[in-house]
């Protein structure tokens, strides 16, 4: 009995320590925010071909990922939202906003959003509907969220968040690492995350810094790559001329 009480006392003493360590670990995560719109080809490409990598290589374990599907949309004077790539984009922005709300765990909503953006890349107009089956997630809560108008409410919240950015976003995809925009170099997100992380670096970070730094230099010399993100903003400006 005495040994049991001693063991129990030890567990109780260690529990706060374990809990505190968990909290510190969570606070050490690197904040990554992605401001994007569903039908922007550069956003789709980044989500499908770059952002997905952090889930595959385990870097997500040190990242607090925040997705904001609104992008270059605008709220009109009559209180409606118009999207850069039309009503289809407004639909998918709201669908993805609903997914984030319904499944707040990034390990759940990201695979769904990635699937939707894959269908965008493939130019499958209604391909996103197959993503429920593909991810094993129920369509009911998303359909209810959208049909009830709640998806639209979420978009208004994202509009306020996006329009409050300082400095303001210049194009999409617009990526922040610990609150700072990484501008045209968003494809090198992993480099910025590894550099910003203050804890013990995961394997994916080790030995990458020199390689990624070299890639960054190469990309900065590629004018096509430098202009690529601005297309989603430029086409919106042309649309309104």
Automatic annotation (TrEMBL):
Q: Where are the transmembrane segments?
A: none
- Gene source species: Rhynchospora tenuis
Which keywords has UniProt assigned to this entry? Glycoprotein, Secreted, Signal
Its organism's taxonomic lineage begins at: Eukaryota, Viridiplantae, Streptophyta, Embryophyta, Tracheophyta
Q: Where is the signal peptide?
A: 1-26
Name where it's found: Secreted
The cross-references to Pfam families, in alphabetical order and at most eight, read: GILT
Similarity comment = Belongs to the GILT family.
Keyword Secreted tagged: yes
Keyword Signal among record annotations: yes
Q: Which GO terms describe its cellular component?
A: extracellular region
The protein in question is named Gamma-interferon-inducible lysosomal thiol reductase
| Entry's Gene Ontology molecular function annotations | oxidoreductase activity, acting on a sulfur group of donors, disulfide as acceptor
């Amino acid at each position: 009995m005495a040994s049991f009480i001693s063991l129990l006392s030890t567990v109780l003493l260690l529990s706060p320590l374990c809990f505190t360590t968990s909290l510190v670990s969570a606070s050490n995560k690197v904040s990554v925010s992605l401001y994007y719109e569903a039908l922007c080809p550069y956003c789709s490409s980044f989500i499908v071909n770059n952002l997905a990598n952090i889930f595959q290589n385990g870097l997500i374990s040190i990242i607090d990922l925040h997705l904001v599907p609104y992008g270059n949309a605008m709220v009109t004077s009559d209180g409606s939202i118009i999207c850069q790539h039309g009503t289809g984009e407004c639909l998918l922005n709201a669908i993805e906003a609903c997914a984030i709300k319904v499944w707040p765990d990034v390990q759940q909503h990201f695979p769904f959003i990635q699937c939707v953006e894959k269908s965008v890349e493939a130019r499958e107009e209604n391909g996103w509907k197959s993503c429920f089956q593909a991810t094993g997630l129920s369509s009911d809560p998303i359909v209810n969220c959208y049909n009830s108008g709640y998806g639209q409410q979420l978009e208004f919240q994202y509009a306020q968040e996006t329009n409050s950015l300082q400095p303001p976003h210049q194009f999409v995809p617009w990526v922040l690492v610990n609150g700072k925009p990484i501008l045209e170099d968003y494809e090198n997100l992993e480099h910025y995350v590894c550099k910003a992380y203050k804890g013990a670096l995961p394997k994916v970070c080790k030995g990458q810094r020199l390689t990624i730094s070299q890639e960054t230099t190469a990309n900065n010399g590629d004018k096509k790559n430098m202009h690529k993100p601005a297309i989603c903003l430029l086409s919106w400006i042309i649309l309104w001329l």
